[in-house]
Protein 1
Amino acid sequence: MFVVRSMTTVTAQPRPNYDPRLVAAAAAMNAGDLPRAEPLLRALLRDDPFEVRAIRLFAELAGRIGRYGDAENLLRRALEIAPDFTAARANLALVLYRTNRATEALAELERVNAEEPGNPGNANLQAAAHGRLGAFEEALALYEQVLRDQPLQPRVWMSYGHMLKTVGRQADGIAAYRKSLELQPSLGEAWWSLANLKTVKFSEEDLAAMRGALEAGDLEPEDRWHLDFALGKALEDRREPEAAFAHYAAGNALRRKRLPYSADDTAAQVDRAIVVSTPALFAARAGEGCPAPDPIFVLGMPRAGSTLVEQILASHSQVEGTSELADIQQLARGIERYPEALADLPGEKMRKLGEDYLRRAGAQRHTGRPFFVDKMPNNWLFVPLIRLILPNAKIIDARRHPLACGFSNFKQHFARGQGFSYSLEDMGRYYTDYVRLMAHVDRVQPGKVHRVLHEAMVEDTEAQVRALLDFCGLDFEPACLAFHETERAVRTASSEQVRRPINREGMEAWQAFAPWLGPLADALGPVLEAWPEVPAAFRSQSEA
């Protein structure tokens, strides 16, 4: 996780001119008590709407619960009032980075660095933004410069490790993570980053260090849950499933308390998408939208084999691999009354939305290859929008056994964006809603989505690769079978796995944990019973 700074640091040392409510709100934010902080900040801003420190703190609160649009508006308001409020500008750069607008983030950071040179947190974010744009050499050079000047920065060492891992320099990445832990042994994210490589085997000394850190009374919640996830992985590798699951469950429970995820909201969004996405709608809009065939969307559940599919496609001479792009989600959020508004959008607007997507995604394209992969898994929620604004784009649904996929998500700590993954019940409901919407799309847009079952890809790789390429209109190339030899940056949790030949490792890992997966199985219900088929009830709902 790349971090500039915490907005709450402005009140760490109260001064006489600080409103006591600001001090109390900052203390609540530091303790993770957002419900206590919010009314304090609202009351303060009612009395003094120009208190820029409170506006900045309120922006952090919005960002923590994923309301980045609100956070951006608040920070821009603070800068309108106080243009020289450098800390607010640095926080705005962070929000822009987190909403996949790295170019804009770099523009803000250029001014921040001029006003506040030598801040390692700002340099950290600047390097991350370069990495987001695929400028990996610039990012690495910036990290190395910062660490030469200020080598005692554990979080910068950790971020440097993230970037080294991304470009395939695993040994150097491990060394950077180890250096960060040498400087701060309780840095939970660094322990989890080692575990998340999926290739590191922890020693007895490592386990003792992680357990010792967990037992410390002054550990931050973020360090605690990262340590639980890392210890879970270490104990799973040692074939101690009960102890491993206890740590996975503890980390998930702590993380879940701080995320405002609602399974009911996801179900309602799917219900609304199904209602509006009728055969009549797609027939009426045929020929509208942007006709460009460039994008190949790889979507579905996280941890379902999408990185493998992307790596196979990116090994083709005509396809560029990019990243998990947030652009489709951002376009959807910009449509008032989405998804109902899809029935009313004029054709000109459909075309413009498609062109906007291509323009945004263009920042991630660095080759002359005609096609590119966007592998944001959550785009399954927006398949009807994709079909309308980019009718010639290809859509690949990467799917995996629901218990295998669900457990893999449960033991994976995501930096953000996967709030469903911290509860087995939420996970089962999310998977079920995903299958339900994709079944509807199959009904109203037959043949427009190609499904890749991860288990089938492992068992008969060549047949599955040929079918995938054929769907994409691409000639078969042997390099797609030797995908592990393709040198490219990979930014997901599977980065090291796709640099090895395909194998069955991890296919049945969930079975050792079956005694504790009851809430997941119960929430899956007919989806689990029918696997790999779609439950008949979902098909009949689609036909109704």
Protein 2
Amino acid sequence: MEQAQRYKVLVVDDEEEIRAGISRKIEWDSLGFGLVGEAANGHQALELAEALCPDVVLTDIKMPFMDGLELCARLQDTLPAARVVMFSGFDEFEYARRAVAMNVFEYILKPINAAELNQVLLRLKAEMDRRRAEQRDLEVLRRRYEESLPVLRQMFYTNLLEGQIPASQLADRAAQYGLKLPPGQWTAALLRVERQPDPLRRDEVLLSVKELLQAQADGLPWPVCTALYKDDVALLACTGQIYPLLQQLERLRSLVQSDLGLELTVGVGIPSEELAGVFQSCAGARAALEYRVLMEGQRVIYIGDLEPDSSATVALAEEDQHRLAAAVKLGQPQQVTEVVRGLIGRIREGRVDLPRCQLFLMEFSTNLIRLARAGGVELEELFGSSYTGAVPIDRFGSYEELESWCVEKGLRLRQLLGRRRTDSAGQVVERAKSFIDQNYSDSTLSVDTLCAYLHLSPAYFSTVFKRETGMSFTSYMTGVRMEQAARLLRETDDKTYLIAEKTGYTDANYFSYVFKRRYSVSPSKYRAGAQG
């Protein structure tokens, strides 16, 4: 069997004779395993596991310094995919049953029988082979993809209605999900259920409305698709014939009322020239719904009848703000440029004159200010020392100048936020090191204690610390403690157990074990060598 196909095994037992017996009596290769390491206790096992990434851990339940159950719990965090086989004495049987909840595959009573262990390993390999085969089986992946198609299509429509799919990708993405979206004008309508009989069944009610509308799609004179969108049902129609569409929407609204007993209000946006711009039509449909309290008795509301002036598109909609924030905080420079150019292009297409662009400039600047303050960026760094809190629109002579300024400020803020994130990571690590240097003598010091002090999650801190220092929190803390222990051995006459306590170890034997692993000599021999 090829080396790459074998499962890696780590054996953990405090009795060297048992470890040697397991290593010698099991024919690892023929079973499909490879023995990659041995450990005498849980602490050593964790360090080896981090370096070797074993697939299987065979561990005793009772060991000094850290027992098998604690080791198993710690492995769930560091190697959640690893399977565990646990050994226990007869009198530890009930104790071992707790292992069932800790991803333990099997536990075996001591003394360990080679034949029994062989059978356990064979069953374990069969299960792991099935899991690996399932993960790699293209047919399984294809079936899972098909099962996920409804969710993927829903995500597609949501992103489409929020303007988050580039026009160049629309056709390919639609074809990938089996959607037929022909070229041409598209109009968005949002159908909102008023006075739902049971708010707890909101999703079920919206789904029933969507299915009824989709069932009526074949009877409409244009291609139509429906999707759930936030708290509404979206209907997209491939047509620019707005008034025939309004008549059909009124018919559908009446059908929902008679068949489902639900009262709908329908908001309709201005037709877009192509599918990529349907998010603007959706924004108009959402705006139309906001007028429903003023339109007593009217249930199908067209935004073009209420806001025919193109200046209605000057303000930044919620989705515009989200896209701008995402590009500035997390995107590449090209994404920032594309988002800003898209916003300016919308104003240019609406032929909005520059004096009426003041609202856009004010909202754009306000969004940058909000992002800057949240990221700890001084406004002078972003806008310059002469910034007074507002940017007058008359400083620009054309759309091109306005676009250039907005792109430049967006890119500048992206650069400043990136620099703050890098500086912040370094500061976190330095604060962590300082805390460890001051508290290494505390035997209860842990990553959780440190993260509570730093007000960070353990997962985020561990990632940042490992990236910045090249080692884990445990390795770094052990290094600090050992350096201090070596110093005390050289400079004082303290007993070994006192030095252990001063460096955060409650067990002098374990302290000596760790010290010898680091310096290759016992504490007493190290002192003798330093003084000799």
